[in-house]
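Review form for a predicted model. The reviewer records the input and the model, then writes brief findings.
Reviewer: anonymous (R2)
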Amino acid sequence: MAIKMELHPDVDYYVKHRCNQEEQTEFFKQLGLIRTEPVRHSEATVDAKLSRYVLRFFRFGDNIAIFEFDAGHSRVRVLECHRLLSGKHPRAGP
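Model under review:
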Protein backbone atom coordinates (compact mmCIF):
# COMPACT_ATOMS: atom_id res chain seq x y z
CA MET A 1 0.00 0.00 0.00
CA ALA A 2 1.37 3.39 -0.96
CA ILE A 3 1.83 5.89 1.85
CA LYS A 4 0.66 9.41 1.10
CA MET A 5 3.15 12.15 1.92
CA GLU A 6 2.25 15.66 3.03
CA LEU A 7 4.66 18.52 3.72
CA HIS A 8 3.62 21.48 5.84
CA PRO A 9 4.23 24.68 3.81
CA ASP A 10 6.90 25.76 6.34
CA VAL A 11 8.74 22.48 5.73
CA ASP A 12 8.70 23.03 1.98
CA TYR A 13 10.07 26.56 2.48
CA TYR A 14 12.74 25.36 4.93
CA VAL A 15 14.05 22.66 2.61
CA LYS A 16 14.07 24.92 -0.46
CA HIS A 17 15.53 28.07 1.17
CA ARG A 18 17.50 27.03 4.25
CA CYS A 19 19.14 23.80 3.10
CA ASN A 20 21.96 23.43 0.62
CA GLN A 21 21.69 21.11 -2.38
CA GLU A 22 23.31 18.20 -0.52
CA GLU A 23 20.86 18.54 2.40
CA GLN A 24 17.91 18.78 -0.01
CA THR A 25 19.00 15.59 -1.74
CA GLU A 26 19.40 13.82 1.62
CA PHE A 27 15.97 15.06 2.77
CA PHE A 28 14.21 13.56 -0.24
CA LYS A 29 16.27 10.36 -0.02
CA GLN A 30 15.23 9.93 3.63
CA LEU A 31 11.64 10.81 2.76
CA GLY A 32 11.67 8.00 0.19
CA LEU A 33 12.79 5.53 2.86
CA ILE A 34 10.14 6.84 5.26
CA ARG A 35 7.52 6.25 2.60
CA THR A 36 8.42 2.56 2.43
CA GLU A 37 8.56 1.85 6.18
CA PRO A 38 7.94 4.90 8.40
CA VAL A 39 8.59 3.24 11.75
CA ARG A 40 11.68 1.31 10.68
CA HIS A 41 13.43 4.34 9.18
CA SER A 42 12.71 6.84 11.96
CA GLU A 43 12.79 7.33 15.70
CA ALA A 44 10.08 8.30 18.18
CA THR A 45 9.97 11.74 19.75
CA VAL A 46 7.63 13.86 21.85
CA ASP A 47 6.97 17.53 21.14
CA ALA A 48 3.99 18.97 23.01
CA LYS A 49 3.95 22.13 20.89
CA LEU A 50 3.27 20.04 17.77
CA SER A 51 1.11 17.21 19.06
CA ARG A 52 -0.01 15.44 22.21
CA TYR A 53 0.77 12.15 20.48
CA VAL A 54 4.12 10.49 19.90
CA LEU A 55 5.73 11.74 16.69
CA ARG A 56 8.56 10.37 14.56
CA PHE A 57 11.71 12.06 13.23
CA PHE A 58 14.55 11.50 10.79
CA ARG A 59 17.83 13.28 10.30
CA PHE A 60 19.19 14.72 7.08
CA GLY A 61 22.58 16.38 7.26
CA ASP A 62 22.63 18.60 10.36
CA ASN A 63 18.83 18.89 10.25
CA ILE A 64 15.86 17.04 11.64
CA ALA A 65 12.38 16.52 10.21
CA ILE A 66 9.53 15.76 12.61
CA PHE A 67 6.48 13.98 11.25
CA GLU A 68 3.32 12.20 12.26
CA PHE A 69 2.46 8.79 10.88
CA ASP A 70 -1.21 7.89 10.58
CA ALA A 71 -1.18 4.15 9.83
CA GLY A 72 -4.98 4.04 9.60
CA HIS A 73 -4.95 6.46 6.66
CA SER A 74 -1.52 5.41 5.31
CA ARG A 75 -0.29 8.99 5.61
CA VAL A 76 2.91 10.69 6.70
CA ARG A 77 2.68 14.41 7.40
CA VAL A 78 6.00 16.26 7.87
CA LEU A 79 5.24 18.97 10.42
CA GLU A 80 8.53 20.75 11.05
CA CYS A 81 12.20 20.89 10.12
CA HIS A 82 15.01 22.60 11.94
CA ARG A 83 18.75 22.53 12.32
CA LEU A 84 20.13 20.41 15.15
CA LEU A 85 22.28 22.25 17.63
CA SER A 86 25.69 20.60 17.98
CA GLY A 87 25.65 17.90 20.62
CA LYS A 88 21.90 18.20 21.17
CA HIS A 89 19.59 15.33 20.39
CA PRO A 90 15.81 15.46 19.92
CA ARG A 91 13.69 14.40 22.86
CA ALA A 92 13.28 10.65 22.89
CA GLY A 93 9.83 9.13 23.01
CA PRO A 94 8.49 6.69 25.57
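Findings: Residues 21-36 form the longest helix (16 residues).
Further findings: Residues 11 and 80 are 6 Å apart (CA to CA).
Recommendation: see findings above.
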